[in-house]
Amino acid sequence: MNKDLQELISDIENSFKTIDDNVERVFNYIDRLDENQKMFNDTIYFNMEDTYNLVIQLRAFRDMVEEIL
After folding, report:
1. Long-range contacts: 17-22, Cβ < 8 Å, 24+?
2. Which whole-number Å values give the CA distances from 25 to 32, 34, 39, 42, 45, in the listed order?
3. Which one has a higher pLDDT value, 2 or 28?
4. Which residues have a Cβ under 8 Å from the Cβ of 6 and sit 6 or more positions away?
5. pLDDT of residue 1
6. Whole-structure pTM over 0.70, yes or no?
7. What is each CA distance from 33 to 27, 28, 46, 60, in whole angstroms?
8. How confident is the model at residue 31 (pLDDT cuts 50, 70, 90)?
9. Helix or strand or coil: residue 4?
10. How far apart are CA 21 and CA 37, in angstroms?
């Protein structure tokens, strides 16, 4: 009986260890998702900024061409 109880306790401890490992993995995934979302947002912002700058340059070029014509 004592051996059965020890095995049960060991199984329970292993189950808690597995749960702890899985919770840690979930938190790591959440952290990575947060990092990926931030990188995505930064990329969108920089692309929008680049596009805006390009539009300004194209307008200036258009104005210059209109002056020449």
Report:
1. none
2. 10, 14, 21, 26, 30
3. 28
4. none
5. 62
6. no
7. 10, 9, 20, 40
8. very high
9. helix
10. 24
